[in-house]
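Table S2 (text version). Query chain:
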Amino acid sequence: MQTLENTKQPTATNHEPTLEQKARQLLLVLGIAGEAGTADLLAIIRWLFEQEQQGRSIHDLPPLKELYAQTLQRVYKEEPLVQKEIRAMEQRIRRMVLQAFTHLSSLGLADYTNPTFEHFAPRRRVD
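Corresponding structure-token output:
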């Protein structure tokens, strides 16, 4: 059985981090690097990057379910399996987002001047 983690990954050139390395660093900062949906999110990022590299505009993102399907069709060939995995991927990503919000809110509760919290926290407009 194939997994999303086994899909091909680009390598870095010129000692500059790859897009995937940057994404992994961001996931680490958000406190979700080890969550179950990490491989799913990285596969989506890879797919979007490849679409952009092929000259396709990604300014208007497709609906999430379509994005999940496009990503999963590279791994699973049977349509019923793709449909089942779409629901599973959606749930893993939903849980991962909740974990990221929980982590960020914990950072803010412990120290509201935490640089990570300040970076991702909503900013108030002063009128």
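Notes on Table S2: The CA atoms of residues 31 and 102 lie 9 Å apart. The chain has a mean pLDDT of 86.
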